[in-house]
Design goal:
heterodimer, A: 488 residues, alpha/beta, Immunoglobulin-like, Cytochrome Bc1 Complex, Chain D, domain 2, 2 domains, 12 helices, B: 261 residues, alpha+beta, two-stranded antiparallel sheet, 8 helices, 7 strands, binds copper (II) ion, copper ion binding (chain A), electron transfer activity (chain A), repeat (chain A), Cytochrome_c-type_DH (chain A)
């Protein structure tokens, strides 16, 4: 641009008009010899699509040419777990909720075979929002149990699209889990990232209330009233927690393909502790930057990207927040640091803003931490670490001063239930808790999901709780937690 | 109706006038005719149904076994592909033995429409029409038309989500107003004109096709659970073809009541 200074104002203006003109004309020669219309892209060869169940996605398409892509998808009606002790009959594309992830590129010719397992009771079909054509394929894919249907389509528009069953009554088929995502990558692929995951929200309506045990039937009335018992990621309350939590390493860039199957609720998708660097709004071509919460309509999707800078657990939620803490719309992304646990906690301390102004926390030095990692922490260390864990993990429900929310989240301050039994408290944090309990004279009948923390973290957080807010000053050790971990 | 009397009637029928059906055969009951508005009739007009006798139970594995023993052309190795697809009697051990996994008195399934129709005709009976089947099946235990009752509809919907009901013996569900068992809760059942109401499977498109049929339920008067149950039956019927043999699809027969009598 060093010549620019020599041009007259008029020249610059002319050049700009010319540039604009070129940009507007779609057929104008471009330095890349790309064929613009995906319909005309030549097909070179054939591949059988690798379909993955959530939270995994198939490998990126990179710079592969447009191909004929064979997709074989099987419909299974099967029993699964909604949450501990609660079963549900899911209707699935490929045996999972959401259904298998399909990854294509623009210009691919997809040959789609939908098979309806012979044991299934019902006919089904598939409407792919990525398909341009009547009903998105629904009519040509309508298939009876024990049969299969094949149809073909060309992927014309890049983006992230929902697919779902559209058999009458559509709402019921979707409510039972018949949805998933199909990605159409642009030519040359999406920009590379370090990790990619597949997350999809859905709302469920059961005959019994949230947490009521046993096999729960679908409740049409509640579905019509849009009164969801469960709002979850990846088909179940623990779809993205515990062993199902997503993982990443510090410094990695993460891309989440997030969909919302509905049937009813719109998701205010948010990751506690992160700002999305980039969001492909509604799964389309518009990219927004620095987004806190992105709206994902039922039957819609978004691609979000962010770099994880600090170790710790990031919490994925529908920020319509009661859904997260009471109905299951809560997932976890565990970010590990390069170093051991103590360093990881140390690093965390730098990134956390403590509104109470607790002063500068001193953590053990890295050198001693390495040796002492598996050992017991001192009371002071536990109180420090415990406060951090509390702020990160328990705070959202049990409130900053442990005061809880009457009838919803029991108090941890001056709590008779807590003080009565240390082992029981350890069990609750380790394994979660549901069912009716009475704390300080108030009844609670809700669900606390199990908290995925290390032994020392649990020992610390409980010690912190017991030594604050008028509790009985019990001290919990890592060994005590370890000994409870295997009991259940 | 005791079976002794039934036997006499049957024998008498067979001997005297085998081709005319004047009275019911054993294990059939009378469904008294009347008028009703089927949920997805062609123009949601009233339909008149004549009185008919209907099998109390769906046809069982043992009964169908006897049928293929008597009629070799319906054995799975002999049957014409035009009349039954590859899933016909899929679980059978061989031509004349059904799978050990199924009870003799559980409903026969994995039979095509042609086979079911032929079975009924050999008995001097026929398959019910969609209207006849729906008419008989809208009864619950106490009333001939229970379609507005929440429990009735919930029962049906929950069956649609329960697997393996074809392993239960016949009669495992409730006895309805007419004395018929298992219309809901055991297996789907073939009807004579199963594809008369065409559901494309694209339910939103079906909405455009015939707004009377589908918009009513799209607006979902919340109590209209019955529409959902019926939706699913009609969708099922719309997805099948006459040579299909499906694991959860069986049949029963009916017989006209001779009005000249
Ligand atoms: Cu479906």
């Amino acid at each position: 641009m060093k010549n620019t200074a020599n041009h007259s104002f008029w020249d610059i203006k002319k050049a700009m008009v010319l540039a604009l003109f070129i940009a507007i004309l779609p057929s104008c020669s471009n330095d890349k010899p790309t064929i613009r219309n995906p319909k005309d892209m030549p097909i070179t060869g054939q591949v059988i699509a690798d379909l993955t169940s959530p939270p995994n996605v198939p490998v990126p398409i990179g710079d592969r040419k447009a191909k004929k892509v064979i997709v074989n998808m099987e419909i299974l009606e099967q029993e699964g777990t909604m949450t501990d002790g609660v079963k549900y009959i899911y209707w699935t594309f490929g045996g999972s909720v959401p259904g298998s992830f399909i990854r294509t590129r623009v210009g691919d010719e997809v040959e789609f075979t939908l098979s309806n397992h012979p044991d299934n009771k019902l006919p089904h079909n598939i409407d792919l929002h990525a398909v341009t054509g009547p009903g998105g394929g629904a009519e040509s894919s309508f298939v009876a149990p024990g049969h299969e249907k094949t149809f073909s389509f060309k992927t014309l528009n890049p983006g992230l699209y929902v697919y779902h069953c559209a058999t009458a009554p559509v709402g019921m088929h979707i409510a039972n889990g018949m949805y998933g995502l199909i990605l159409v990558e642009p030519e040359g692929g999406l920009p590379p990232v370090d990790k990619e995951y597949y997350v999809m929200q859905g709302d469920f309506y059961t005959k019994g209330a949230n947490g009521e045990r046993g096999l729960q039937a679908f409740d049409m009335q509640k579905a019509v009233n849009e009164d969801a018992d469960y709002v979850v990621f990846n088909g179940q309350v623990n779809g993205l927690t515990g062993d199902n939590a997503l993982t990443a390493n510090v410094g990695e860039t993460i891309r989440l393909f997030v969909g919302n199957g509905g049937p009813n609720l719109v998701s205010s998708f948010h990751v506690i502790g992160e700002i999305f660097d980039k969001v492909s709004v509604e799964g389309g071509s518009m990219v927004n930057k620095n987004v806190q919460t992105t709206l994902i309509p039922a039957g819609g999707a978004a691609m979000v990207e962010f770099k994880v800078d600090v170790p710790g657990t990031l919490v994925l939620v529908d920020h319509s927040i009661f859904r997260a803490f009471n109905k299951g719309a809560l997932g976890m992304l565990k970010v590990s640091g390069e170093e051991d646990e103590q360093v990881y906690s140390g690093t965390q301390m730098e990134g956390i803003y403590l509104p109470e102004g607790s002063g500068i926390q001193t953590m053990p030095s890295t050198a001693t931490a390495k040796e002492e990692a598996p050992q017991e922490l001192s009371l002071a260390e536990k109180l420090n670490l415990g406060k951090t864990v509390y702020q990160q993990t328990c705070f959202a429900c049990h409130q900053p001063e442990g005061q809880g929310i009457p009838t919803i989240f029991p108090p941890l301050a001056k709590a008779d239930y807590l003080n009565a039994d240390v082992n029981r408290a350890i069990d609750i944090v380790l394994h979660g808790k549901s069912g009716e309990i009475t704390v300080n004279g108030t009844k609670y009948n809700s669900v606390m999901t199990k908290q995925t923390l290390t032994d020392n973290e649990i020992a610390s957080v409980l010690t912190y709780v017991y030594n604050n807010w008028g509790n009985n000053k019990s001290e919990v050790t890592g060994a005590m937690v370890k000994s409870r971990r295997n009991i259940k | 109706m005791n079976s002794f009397y039934g036997k006499i009637v049957t024998t008498w029928l067979c001997l005297i006038i085998p081709l005319t059906t004047l009275a019911q055969q054993k294990n059939m009951v009378l469904v008294k005719g009347g008028e009703f508005i089927p949920l997805y009739g062609v123009d949601s007009a009233t339909v008149k149904v004549n009185s008919f006798f209907m099998d109390v139970y769906p046809v069982t594995n043992a009964e169908y076994q006897q049928f293929v023993i008597d009629h070799p052309k319906w054995r799975k190795s002999k049957v014409l592909k035009l009349y039954a697809d590859a899933s016909y009697l899929a679980n059978w051990e061989n031509d004349t033995t059904f799978s050990k996994d199924f009870l003799p008195d559980a409903p026969i399934t994995s039979v095509s429409w042609f086979a079911a129709k032929s079975y009924c005709e050999y008995q001097g009976k026929r398959l019910p029409t969609v209207d006849e089947w729906e008419y008989a099946a809208m009864a619950d235990a106490v009333s001939p038309d229970a379609r507005k009752k929440e429990d009735y509809n919930k029962y049906i919907l929950s069956w649609y989500e329960t697997s393996n009901t074809i392993k239960n013996p016949i009669g495992s569900t409730f006895k309805n107003y007419w004395g018929i068992y298992d219309l809901h809760g055991a297996a789907w059942e073939w009807t004579l004109d199963f594809n008369s109401v065409l559901i494309s499977g694209e339910s939103r498109k079906d909405v455009d096709k015939d707004s009377d049929l589908f918009c009513g339920s799209a607006a979902v008067g919340a109590s209209d659970l019955m529409n959902y149950a019926a939706f699913m039956r009609y969708a099922f019927r719309g997805s099948i073809k006459a040579q299909y043999s499906i694991k959860n699809l069986g049949f029963r027969c009916i017989q006209d009541v001779n009005t000249n009598q």
